[in-house]
Fold this protein.
Amino acid sequence: MRDFVDHRISASDFDTRYLRLVENYPGLLDPRVFRSVDLLFYEVDALVLDERLRDRNDRNEIDEYRLPISARDTLAKLQEVRRQATRFRPISSCWARRA
């Protein structure tokens, strides 16, 4: 995702890689992570790169200009989840150090 947000890969490459990753991910995600990843999945799925195939009346379709905005928003949300997770230590780890 970072490569796409930083313009190191194309929308087409991101589309392929992201869908493959979501399809092959074997585990369950934390609900906070899942919401963001799931929303981006729908955005990637709605990507229409060929302008001739776009339906101007379909508000769900997105193009290569809107997808990076969605990816950037998702990345920011995931980074916030990570910050929150590292900010708070589990109580059990605090107790283990006292013993």
About this structure: Residues 92-99 have pLDDT under 50 and may be disordered.
